[in-house]
Amino acid sequence: MAQIEVQRQPAISVPNAVAPQTGGVQFIPTSLYVGDLDVTVTDEQLFQLFGQVARVASVRICRDLATGRSLGYGYVNYSNPRDAARALDLLNFTPLNNKPIRIMYSQRDPSLRKSGTANIFIKNLDKSIDHKALHDTFSAFGNILSCKISTDGFGQSKGYGFVQFDSEESAQNAIDKLNGMLINDKQVYVGHFLRKQERETTSSKTKFNNVYVKNLSESTTDEDLKTIFGEYGEITSAVIMRDADGKSKCFGFVNFEIADDAAKAVEALNGKKFEEKEWYVGKAQKKSEREHELKSRFEQTVKEAADKLKGMNLYVKNLDDSIDDEKLKELFSEYGKIISCKVMRDPSGVSKGSGFVAFSTPEEASRALAEMNHKLVVSKPLYVALAQKQEERRASLQAQFSQMRPLAIPSVAPRMPMYPSGAPGLGQQFLYGQAPPAIIPQAGFGYQQQLVPGVRPGGPPVPNFFVPMVQQGQRPGGRRGAGPFQQAQQPGTCQSIPTWL
After folding, report:
1. Rounded to an integer, what distance in angstroms lies between the CA atom of residue 325 and that of residue 342?
2. 70 strand-pairing partners
């Protein structure tokens, strides 16, 4: 068997390199995605590193909006495609803060990444092979858009990785040449990348030799199984599972020598009655496969029920704790025929304050919705709406959020809130009766300049004070909404990158 010895080679500069322009691959040839960044890397460091290659138009490290912590990736933009191509060639896998960075062209179309086009999966890799070594091995088969070794929390290889080419031809060529080859004394598997759903669908269609049979009579023996199933092919084993006392658990397994014989036995014997017992005969499954199948069946049942009751099922919340199923049904029964009524409760039986009422027709549900929404019941106003599936509610909320616009406030430097010496810091509160520091609005806000004791008009600039706004009758730091000057955070421009890139 052929042996490939992976060696780390230094990057070779290609001054005239240009961004690949293959069909179907959509990216901005001047924008680079930089991944595997150490959390301590700053925008300035990224700017200086990439500025050594050519003039950089802009850099941005993507950060968590709440904590400000680096997400481990960012973007570098050039003005010239050749500069971007040269930076990718020269700087890919360069250590930055003792951690090699990974560069690829920024792909703004997420459908390309999620489709798995020209993406291959490699497993059984030697733990010594890193991103650079994997890239060097597969670069001989075509232009690589992304290359990654999957690692654990300590940065150690998990023994598998992913390589995405710019064309299916290159990917297929790599599979044909490297699948089953020895790389660093280990035989590797190289194949097309499949998403989880595709892998599960593929595994469900695979042939099987082991058959599971249940609902057996307690008197059924191993020999009975061999006799019945032996009519369909050669059997290597047949066993009925028993407890510690030797009593039958009424299920067992039959293993055939040929997979086609196992399939014939399942088709012929599933649902047949033996000793007044209807047998279930099917493919022997792993626990994870059974759980997935049961989950799929449950989700399908829920979907069918929801589709059947669409427009007829009402969601009711803000219910008083004294309202049970009967009282809820009584409240809504005057508007039509109720086919189901349920108050939701926690495991201890305490009402969650919400429930569902399903009518026989959409017209009845609409009438109940119009009459009962905001109606006082036991001194609490009800909230009534058409019941929605979780994905529908999520889509509705996302649509509402996308229509929100932040309050337009002129950009004023400095942009971060600043406090003068001795003033309360971020997160501190003012005590009742304590006057806050005087606010000096910046020019352009439409306010007149206020005089502050000890400060001369026209004197040196005064620090930009920041004072939390407290509405009248509202406790500082309370749980109610912020004051009118709080502006919504703008959604970030950084894109999410799948874990395998």
Report:
1. 5
2. 63
CA 36/CA 186 separation, integer angstroms? 26
Q: CATH class for domain 31-201?
A: alpha beta
Which tokens sit at 216? 């057996």
As a CATH number, domain 307-393 is 3.30.70.330
With tokens 């926690």, the residue in question is: 346
> pTM of the prediction?
0.41
CATH superfamily label, 212-284: RRM (RNA recognition motif) domain (3.30.70.330)
Chain-centroid distance, C-alpha 485: 33
Residues 52-98: tens digit of each pLDDT: 999 999 999 999 888 889 999 999 999 999 999 899 889 988 999 98
β-bridge pairing 119-123 and 182-183: unpaired
CA neighbor of 409 nearest in space, from 440, 439, 442, 438? 442
Exposed / middle / buried, residue 304 (Cβ in 10 Å: 0-12, 13-18, 19+): exposed
DSSP string spanning 336-380? S-EEEEEEEE-TTS-EEEEEEEEESSHHHHHHHHHHHTT-EETTE
Pairing of the two strands 248-256 and 383-386: unpaired
Judge whether residue 499 has pLDDT over 50: no
Mention every residue, 6+ apart, whose C-beta is less than 8 A from residue 283: 208, 210, 211, 212, 262, 266
Helical residues (DSSP H) of 3-102, grouped into ranges: 43-51, 81-91
Confidence tier at 3 by pLDDT (50, 70, 90): low
Q: Which residue has the tokens 């068997």?
A: 1
- Which 3-state string (H, E, C) describes 155-220? CCEEEEEEEEECCHHHHHHHHHHHCCCEECCEECEEEECCCHHHHHHHHHCCCCCEEEEECCCCCC
Radius of gyration of the chain (CA): 33
Q: When comparing pLDDT for 456 and 295, which is higher?
A: 295
What distance in Å separates the CA atoms of residue 92 and residue 382, rounded to the nearest whole number? 60
Rounded Cα–Cα distance for residues 452 and 435 (Å): 14
Fold match, 31-201 / 212-284: yes
State whether the Cα torsion 473-479-481-486 is positive or negative.
positive
Q: Which amino acid is at 5?
A: E
- What are the tokens at 266? 């399942």
Residues contacting 172, CB < 8 A, separation 6+: none
DSSP assignment string, 444-485: TSS-PPPP-TT--TT-SPPP-B------TT--TT-SSPP-TT
Domain spans, the chain: 31-201, 212-284, 307-393
Q: Say how far apart CA 450 and CA 254 lie, in whole Å.
A: 90
Strands in 210-214's sheet, in edge-to-edge order, are 235-242, 248-256, 210-214, 280-283
* pLDDT for the residue numbered 430: 45
- Please, what's the b/e burial string for 112-123 (b: 16 or more CB within 10 A of its CB; e: otherwise)? bbeebbbbbbbe
